[in-house]
Amino acid sequence: APSPWELARTRLAWARSLPVADEVRLQLATDALRSFDQMGARPWAAQARSLLAQAGGGAAPEHADALVALSARERTVALSVSRGLSNKEIATELFISQKTVDAHLQQVYRKLGLRSRTQLAALCHAVAVDHR
User: Angle at the Cα of 30 (from 25 to 34), degrees rounded to 5?
Assistant: First the structure.
């Protein structure tokens, strides 16, 4: 039997492939969101919430997730920064170059209106506390 994690990811991927107003899309995204919330997979839950918000699914988060505007890779880099990793350590962990890490961070700063790693780490921790 597939793991709950893989099942939720598959539902989210399937929902993304369907037209915005499709009822099946809404149901798949809702099911994926419920699973991700139960597992505590906040970045994945944010993606499902975003998908539901696009479709007018009415399942907008009670507390807006500031990281929802980021791509999956940008979110991963941002969360790595919040863990205190250097660009070199992030690059090694994600198998990408330091320049790519820097480019992702510049996009994160621009999208979130931030100027430093400290601000980014504080925001990531605040979002984590809001979701507890």
Answer: 150
**Which tens digits make up the pLDDT trace of 109-128?**
998 888 999 989 888 887 77
Spatial separation of the C-alpha atoms in residues 91 and 77, rounded to whole Å:
9
pTM score? 0.53
Alpha-carbon distance 34 to 49, whole Å? 10
H/E stretch holding 103: helix 98-112
User: How many whole angstroms separate alpha carbon 128 and alpha carbon 6?
Assistant: 23
Residue 69: pLDDT band by 50, 70, 90 thresholds? confident
Tell me the chain's radius of gyration from C-alpha atoms.
16
Quote the CA–CA distance of 33 and 118 in Å, as a whole number: 30
Q: How far apart are CA 85 and CA 87, in angstroms?
A: 7
